[in-house]
Amino acid sequence: MANSAMTTGEGLAEQLVLSSFMPALLLDGDTRVVIASRSFARTFETNGNPEHRLLAELGLGEWSVPQLHSLIEVALGDGPIIDTYEMDLKRPDTAVRRLRVNARKVASGSVAEARVLLTIEDTTDARLAAEAERRLVRERDALLRERSQAAEDRSLFISEMRHRIANSLQIIASILMLKARAVKSDEGRMHLEDACDRVLTIAGIQRQLCEGLDDIAVGPYLTSLAGSLSASMIRGHRPVTLTVEADESVVHSNVAVSMGLIVTELVINALKHAFPDSRAGSIVVRYRSDPPKWALSVEDDGIGMPKDRAKAHVGLGTSLISALARQMKAVVAVADCNPGTKTTLTGSADPIVPTPAAA
């Protein structure tokens, strides 16, 4: 009865091996092949039918691996189950194949009656794919490090250039101030002082941009700019205040430069025309963004717009503001606030200013 059960079990094992999609061998206690799966024959060249041959004799002897035979002996001796054993199958003139082997005892008895089921999974392609993936990851990481270093070098270069530009502008402003003191004409002195103020303001913008090369917080940026304008143009002897009201928006540094130039021109214009005869007043700079819409305005409570606006002179500042507004795809509107004047730039898309390379 026991022999009958064993025979039935062995027959079932043989049928399972034959139909296995995974390469498999059923071995006896001498590691002689009882039966081999069709997939084993297709996957591995064994120089003829592997059945009734010792495992070490298959192929060109590539299966004669001491560790593999030790694994089978452990399985036959009811030792601890080793779920996965990996080995390299080395055959002359053939690429090394990486295998994952599993050995299980499926029948006990004498050496001739014992059975071990050996299943083999060829992981060569998976290993090559994993190695290729790791290589790609290493190459990607190296490229990212190179780009990061290049970006850092670029940032340092741009920062250094902006510092140098700011220093050069400071020197130009000093020369203009010296020339203004030497000019006897009041009108000539006024023009030179205006030019000096503009140069100083642009120098201040350059220094602020050194702190953030890409994205600039609008509120702190405009507040710092207002402080520079107050220090250079109001200088404490004019009863005019300059304040900023802005949300927490962030813009690209190219946009910040354009905003700074626009605000500078509008503030200079207000200081020149809105508060004659040391008149007291205030100037408020505002920025609000509700993406994609945004608005930048400069408002004063001075004497207001000239009565005859048609004869008003269009100066360099007005032309500059118009050009910058077109670049930012914004619309300029000037309103009489009674008292005072308000100039507003509004856009229906995020303000975008092309970089010098793209301009």
TrEMBL record:
Its EC number is 2.7.13.3. Transmembrane segments: none annotated. Pfam families: HATPase_c, HisKA_2. Signal peptide: none annotated. Keywords: ATP-binding, Kinase, Nucleotide-binding, Phosphoprotein, Transferase. It catalyses: ATP + protein L-histidine = ADP + protein N-phospho-L-histidine. Residues 254-351 form the Histidine kinase/HSP90-like ATPase domain. GO terms for molecular function: ATP binding; protein histidine kinase activity. This is histidine kinase.
